[in-house]
Design a protein that fits this description.
Helix content is 78%, strand content 1%. The N and C termini lie far apart (105 Å). The chain is mainly alpha-helical. The chain contains 11 helices and 2 strands; from the N terminus they run αααααααββαααα. β1 and β2 form a beta hairpin. α2 packs parallel to α5 and α8 packs parallel to α10. The C terminus is likely disordered. It has a two-stranded antiparallel ribbon with strand order 1-2. The protein is elongated.
């Protein structure tokens, strides 16, 4: 039986050549959304798939665990050597565009390798209750870059509120990616982005309220409140989850009206006294 076992080093050498070709393909060609091209010929793909199959069927359990760990290391090395260096140091829209580019490249890499390692995913990963092989590589990028990425997105949203031109599709695309992150059962959008977005929106309207109360009459202020609520409802529906839009409107109303109740009441009293006089 031992003579029929597949040598892990020999098998991995074959797989490493395929992985190197995949990485080189991504580096040289880039990846567009929903790509149809493949870095492998049919024969190359079959060789890689068969190598994984043989390691799982004819290798020892130790071989299979080693194969799983090496798969994870492939992504960790890729993230460390290519993805993070390309993101760090970029600012503003340049960061977001590179983030989107690397996201599509990541999806492409995962798609290609998940086909090759499909048998191990089915045979070993699910049975041992390990993280899916599709999810092993995202955490490092997300944890290291989410603060900067969120900061750029929230800054652009505030610029839009101020009437400055922004790339709305860029913001929409990044938020869509954040919605797709599911790390260790963590909903990144709901647990991370939404609270940050609502807090930033609250801070924005808290400052605006101070200015508008100083500059506007009571009736004009309330008209401004209605205008803001309508704009936030319309624009928010373009890129936010519907539950977030409702929370946003409640937060805006709180900052502009409920938290300013005493000031608004005094404005009404002054207005009534002025009318009596």
């Amino acid at each position: 039986m031992a003579s029929n076992q597949v040598d892990i080093e020999t098998g991995w050498a074959t797989l490493q050549k395929g992985i190197d070709k995949l990485v080189s393909f991504i580096d040289n060609n880039g990846v567009k959304p929903n790509p149809t091209e493949s870095p492998f010929t049919a024969d190359e793909y079959m060789l890689l798939y068969t190598t994984v199959y043989d390691l799982c069927r004819r290798g020892t359990e130790t071989h299979i665990k080693e194969l799983y760990n090496r798969y994870k290391i492939v992504f960790q090395d890729y993230i460390r050597s290519r993805v993070l260096p390309s993101l760090k140091g970029r600012k503003g829209e340049y960061l977001l565009r590179e983030f989107i580019k690397k996201w599509y490249e990541h999806l492409f890499m995962v798609r290609c390798l998940s086909h090759i390692f499909f048998y191990m995913e089915r045979y070993f990963v699910g049975r041992c209750f390990l993280p899916s092989m599709k999810d092993v590589s995202l955490d490092q990028v997300y944890q290291e870059m989410k603060g900067e990425i969120f900061g750029v997105v929230l800054s652009m949203i505030n610029e839009d509120r101020d009437g400055k031109p922004i790339d709305g599709e860029l913001v929409k695309s990044v938020i869509k990616i954040i919605m797709e992150f599911k790390l260790n059962k963590l909903d990144s959008y709901q647990e991370d982005f939404e609270p940050a977005f609502l807090d930033a929106s609250g801070a924005y309207y808290d400052q605006k309220s101070i200015i508008w109360l100083r500059e506007l009459s009571h009736s004009n202020y309330m008209s401004k409140v209605d205008e803001c609520l309508k704009i936030e409802s319309f624009k928010g529906s373009q890129y936010l989850h519907s539950n977030t839009v409702q929370k946003l409107l409640e937060r805006v109303r709180f900052e502009l009206v409920e938290s300013r109740g005493d000031k608004l009441a005094r404005m009404v009293n002054w207005l009534e006294l002025g009318n009596k006089n």
